[in-house]
Design a protein that fits this description.
The chain has a 15-stranded mixed beta sheet that branches. It is globular, with a radius of gyration of 20 Å. The protein has two domains: about 260 residues, Zn peptidases (Aminopeptidase, 3-Layer(aba) Sandwich), CATH 3.40.630.10; about 70 residues, RNA polymerase II/Efflux pump adaptor protein, barrel-sandwich hybrid domain (OB fold (Dihydrolipoamide Acetyltransferase, E2P), Beta Barrel), CATH 2.40.50.100. About 20% of the residues lie in helices and about 30% in strands. The chain has about 350 residues and is of the alpha/beta class. The chain contains six helices and 18 strands. The protein binds zinc ion. Zinc ion binds next to loops.
């Protein structure tokens, strides 16, 4: 199918059917563009108040979202769709091409660039395009992540603490449609300028999630991202078919866990070689041995033993064997209810 080149302000979002664009964002220091893929699908079955906006590749070295969202660009048939879906499978296109977390052109982390700035660097201008032109076109916002090079998570959807109870309840309901073992409420204080942060503040039904790790492409993570997004379209009746379970029948329902205080995000006490001893998603208790931090410059020294500080589930652990002092080594999240 043909792809149209388009300047950011020249897109007709009401064009019927599926249209694939490469949106031209000029570079900051050379003649040329980051050509950001965008697909707009306007269904022919009529309008729907719950437009769905989906992003992958917000971090360039996270692939489950890029693959799942790219597949949906082709798979969603406008003839069987009620309403509008907008898909951006490689939001930080330059970071995706470079296989790195941040854009090589401005070293900006797209997931800290929101709401963006029309006069800022490349990433900031793409974020501003999303905030000003894409967000007004939908009520449901989905941003698919994976741990990347440093962090590993059990399969989970995620959101921040939400003050409005109706918005929080609807976000929890929609997060469950991805049928991941965990729904993770995480700290707003760990970073600002996130895509989902900004969407939440606008009152959107905003869902993040971690569907893989380690710059790989996990087939289970891709399935949950792909089918989860389709379930969101089914739930809001954009697709006229029932919501489908994704895990095998008899799997327990997703478990809602929270780590909303920075004290839950435990920093690595020194540089070292990390030997994890507990699987992701395992329930732990205070004092449980989580891993050993070795100092291989002195093989006669015992390793530093790292223990759990509270009850909960191991929701994140440093993936690389070489954590640096200050990097988050692990997160234990406690079971909760809204
Ligand atoms: Zn990410």
């Amino acid at each position: 199918m043909a792809t149209l080149l388009a300047e950011p302000h020249s897109i007709n979002f009401n064009r019927p059917g599926s249209t694939h664009y490469q949106v031209q964002f000029h570079l900051d220091g050379a003649w040329g563009y980051s050509l950001v893929p965008l697909t707009v699908i306007n269904g022919t079955l009529g309008p729907n108040p719950n437009g769905v906006l989906v992003f992958g590749g917000t971090h360039g070295n996270e692939y489950e979202g890029q693959i799942a969202v790219k597949r949906l660009c082709r798979d969603i048939n406008p003839a069987t769709l009620h309403g509008r879906v907008i898909l951006m499978p490689q939001l930080s296109e330059s970071a995706c091409r470079a296989n790195q977390r941040v854009s090589p052109f401005d070293n900006v982390n797209m997931n800290r660039a929101f709401p963006g700035n029309p006069h800022g660097t490349l990433s900031s201008r793409i974020a501003h395009f999303v905030s000003s032109q894409i967000f007004p076109l939908g009520r449901v916002v989905i941003d698919v992540h994976s741990g990347g090079r440093e962090g590993a998570f059990p399969l989970c959807t995620s959101f921040h603490p939400i003050h409005d109870p109706a918005q929080a309840a609807e976000i929890e309901t929609v997060a469950r449609l991805f049928d991941t073992p965990f729904l993770f409420i995480y700290a707003s204080t760990m970073g600002s300028g996130l895509l989902t942060d900004h969407a939440e503040a606008l009152g959107k039904i905003s869902i993040g999630g971690e569907f893989g790790t380690g710059e790989s492409a996990d087939p289970v993570g891709i399935r949950h991202a792909y089918e989860g997004i389709r379930n969101v379209l089914r739930h809001y009746q954009l697709l006229p078919e029932p919501v489908q379970p994704i895990r095998p029948l008899g799997s327990p329902p997703p478990r809602l866990v929270a780590a909303t205080e920075l004290s839950a995000y435990v920093p690595c006490p020194r540089d070292g070689v990390w030997e994890p001893l507990v699987e992701l998603g395992t329930p732990v208790a205070p004092g449980d041995l989580l891993g050993r931090l070795h100092d291989f410059s002195d093989h006669a020294e015992p390793p530093l033993e790292i223990h759990a500080q509270r009850f909960g589930y191991l929701l994140m652990m440093h993936r690389s064997a070489r954590p640096l002092k200050g990097q988050t080594l692990f997160v234990i999240a406690e079971e909760t209810t809204l």
